[in-house]
Design a protein that fits this description.
Layout: H1 3-6, E1 8-10, H2 11-18, H3 22-31, E2 37-38, E3 44-47, H4 50-62, H5 67-76, H6 81-114, H7 121-135, H8 146-156, H9 161-179, H10 189-206, H11 210-221, H12 228-233, H13 240-254
Helix pairs in contact: 4-5, 4-6, 6-7, 9-10, 10-13
Length: 255
């Protein structure tokens, strides 16, 4: 066994190793977030592997998750460090894209002022949209009822980056296949197979729940009012002809 991995640290030593305060470690211990071993005299003893759990706690806290939810997530699904770091990186990269968009819009506004002009309303609106999206990342919540919103939050915990990547791939393939077959009869076998794939992907998100499905319909019905960043992310799936084709295939099935 690696001697470094077996070494035990008293609270102050571990706090210095991790770059946190002793008070923070005591707080996490009381909450059951990070519980070290105890000596017979009651002193806390930390191991090097406790640093991995602490890293996950600190990272999830930075992503604005409450401590109670962090505990539930880590207790239920103790990720390996590589998986945890990958998920953290993907979330932070998304935050960076939002910040870069805000910075670009602000620079554009500064340039206009530097040239003796007032920034156009479109520039100011862009700044507001991106900053609002950054401070309120769950902008979709308004489309769901309270009960449906709670269910969506529960399902998000099952939505790993790997699953997201696989679903994105399947959606891209489906749109590509439909775009190549827009002349097909909506009632025909091929079109109906596209509709089956479409509904399967939607149910992968909704879990077949009626309230979530209704909220999702409300969300997509209001696409014109989505934040700019969301519209950009959905650009590969914005072909109106594809959506119209699926609507026709759905109507043909109901006949």
């Amino acid at each position: 066994m690696d001697a470094g991995a077996a070494r035990m640290y008293r609270t102050r030593e571990f706090a210095e190793l991790a770059g946190v305060t002793v008070r923070t470690l005591h707080h996490y211990d009381r909450l059951g977030l990070l519980q070290p071993r105890r000596t017979e005299a009651g002193y806390r003893l930390y191991q090097a592997r406790d640093l991995e759990r602490l890293e996950q706690i600190v990272a999830l806290k930075f992503l604005a998750l409450p401590l109670k939810r962090i505990k539930a997530l880590l207790d239920r699904d103790a990720l390996d460090l590589a998986g945890a770091l990958r998920r953290q990186r993907q979330v932070l990269e998304q935050k960076r894209r939002l910040l870069n968009s805000a910075l670009a819009a602000i620079r554009e506004g500064e340039s206009a002022i530097g040239a003796g002009r007032r920034p156009e309303s479109a520039i100011l609106r862009r700044i507001i949209e991106v900053i609002e999206m950054q401070s309120k990342p769950d902008w979709t919540a308004k489309y769901y009822t309270g009960e449906a919103g709670a269910k969506v939050e529960e399902r998000k915990e099952l939505w790993s980056p790997e699953l997201q990547a696989e679903c994105s791939r399947q959606w891209s393939e489906l749109f590509r296949d439909i775009e190549a077959a827009l002349d097909e009869d909506p009632a025909g076998e091929k079109a109906q197979s596209f509709l089956d794939r479409w509904q399967k992907l939607v149910e992968g998100f909704t879990g077949g729940d009626f309230a979530i499905t209704q909220g999702l319909k409300n969300l997509y019905a209001d696409r014109a009012n989505w934040p700019v960043e969301a519209k950009q992310q959905m650009a590969p799936y914005s072909n109106k002809a594809v959506w119209s084709f699926i609507d026709k295939a759905r109507a043909a099935r109901k006949k």
